[in-house]
């Protein structure tokens, strides 16, 4: 059968070999820029980033942890999502810095997967939610739009000037969960004075009073507030750091981190169905 003929060298023949040189790292093998790597982690549904733990479908497509529970199949190949961990991508992710999800609002930070969730929870560029309590308002926007939203979309809120004011809550014995809100203007800022009545648990009604700054966390850290119920010889007071509206009120009430009193206490301080709370704002 015909075919190429092999050629053999004589056993004692010398073969010239290229000189061996010390290999240098190839530039083509260097790590891709972080910006290029980040695009590999984009969720095809929300375009946020897929962070560890990273799961893939049977074809290798990734979906972020926020979108995954809402899907019945892979949004790309329509196959089952499954529970396959992509350990290789998780390892790559650990060496990548991801942009904050609020980049479009002005945040310029890039963070590791471990740092990103905590930062975004506290990011000063995160949109502000409506701070008006007792409503189902889902408005979100930038800080400079909060006051306009409150005045144009909610019932009129009384504004008083000064560092020392009286927060007057009328019809204090009205039944059901209800809230009272007033605005205090001082030190070039607006502070929300809030009194909420709610059932801490069934059959036990409590009142929660606190102050929030319509401003950032850093600005709020500069102020202290004091709330006092006063009806000689009785006095009840609470003093604490002012919190930003960015922090919400759920944790404040859940932890009773405010002036708290029940319906029995009301009887010592209310006059003709109204409760006056002395409020003092001070700057550190």
UniProtKB/TrEMBL annotation:
Q: Under the cellular component aspect of Gene Ontology, which terms does the record hold?
A: cytoplasm
**By its UniProt entry, which Gene3D superfamilies does this protein fall under?**
Apoptosis, Tumor Necrosis Factor Receptor Associated Protein 2, Chain A (2.60.210.10), Zinc/RING finger domain, C3HC4 (zinc finger) (3.30.40.10)
| A single MF term (Gene Ontology) | ubiquitin protein ligase activity
Stretches assigned to the RING-type domain: 43-78
SIAH-type domain location is 95-155
Keywords noted in UniProt: Metal-binding, Transferase, Ubl conjugation pathway, Zinc, Zinc-finger
**Catalysed reactions listed for this entry:** S-ubiquitinyl-[E2 ubiquitin-conjugating enzyme]-L-cysteine + [acceptor protein]-L-lysine = [E2 ubiquitin-conjugating enzyme]-L-cysteine + N(6)-ubiquitinyl-[acceptor protein]-L-lysine
Q: What is its EC number?
A: 2.3.2.27
Q: In which pathway does it act?
A: Protein modification; protein ubiquitination
Q: What InterPro entries does the record point to? A: 7-in-absentia-prot_TRAF-dom, SINA-like_animal, Sina-like_RING, TRAF-like, Znf_RING, Znf_RING/FYVE/PHD, Znf_SIAH
Q: Which PROSITE patterns has this protein been placed in?
A: ZF_RING_2, ZF_SIAH
Work out whether the entry's keyword set contains Metal-binding. Answer: yes
Annotated GO biological processes are: cell differentiation; proteasome-mediated ubiquitin-dependent protein catabolic process; protein ubiquitination
Per the record, the similarity remark reads: Belongs to the SINA (Seven in absentia) family.
Q: What is known of its domains?
A: The SBD domain (substrate-binding domain) mediates the interaction with substrate proteins. It is related to the TRAF family. The RING-type zinc finger domain is essential for ubiquitin ligase activity.
What task does this protein carry out? E3 ubiquitin-protein ligase that mediates ubiquitination and subsequent proteasomal degradation of target proteins. E3 ubiquitin ligases accept ubiquitin from an E2 ubiquitin-conjugating enzyme in the form of a thioester and then directly transfers the ubiquitin to targeted substrates.
Kindly provide the name given to this protein in its UniProt entry.
E3 ubiquitin-protein ligase
């Amino acid at each position: 059968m015909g075919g190429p003929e092999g050629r053999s060298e004589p056993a004692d023949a010398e073969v010239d070999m290229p000189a061996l040189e010390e290999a240098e790292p190839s530039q083509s093998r260097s790590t891709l820029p972080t910006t290029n790597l980040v695009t590999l982690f984009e969720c095809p549904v929300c375009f946020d980033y897929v962070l560890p733990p990273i799961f893939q479908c049977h074809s290798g497509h990734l979906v972020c942890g926020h979108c995954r529970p809402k899907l019945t199949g892979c949004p790309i190949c329509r196959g089952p999502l499954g529970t396959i961990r992509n350990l290789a991508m998780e390892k790559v992710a650990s060496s990548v810095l991801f942009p904050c999800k609020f980049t479009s609002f002005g945040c310029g930070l890039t963070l590791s997967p471990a740092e990103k969730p905590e930062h975004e929870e506290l990011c000063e560029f995160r949109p502000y939610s409506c701070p008006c309590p007792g409503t189902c308002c889902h408005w979100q926007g930038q800080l400079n739009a909060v006051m306009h939203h409150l005045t144009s979309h909610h019932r009129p809120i009384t504004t008083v000037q000064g560092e020392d004011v009286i927060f007057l809550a009328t019809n204090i014995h009205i039944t059901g969960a209800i809230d009272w809100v007033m605005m205090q203007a001082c030190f070039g800022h607006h502070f929300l004075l809030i009194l909420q009545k709610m059932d801490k648990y069934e059959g036990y009604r409590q009142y929660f009073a606190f102050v929030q700054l319509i401003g950032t966390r850093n600005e709020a850290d500069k102020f202290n507030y004091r709330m006092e119920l006063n009806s000689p010889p009785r006095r009840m007071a609470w003093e604490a750091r002012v919190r930003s509206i960015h922090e919400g009120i759920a944790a404040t009430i859940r932890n009773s981190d405010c002036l708290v009193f029940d319906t029995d206490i009301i009887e010592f301080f209310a006059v003709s169905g109204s409760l006056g709370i002395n409020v003092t704002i001070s700057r550190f």
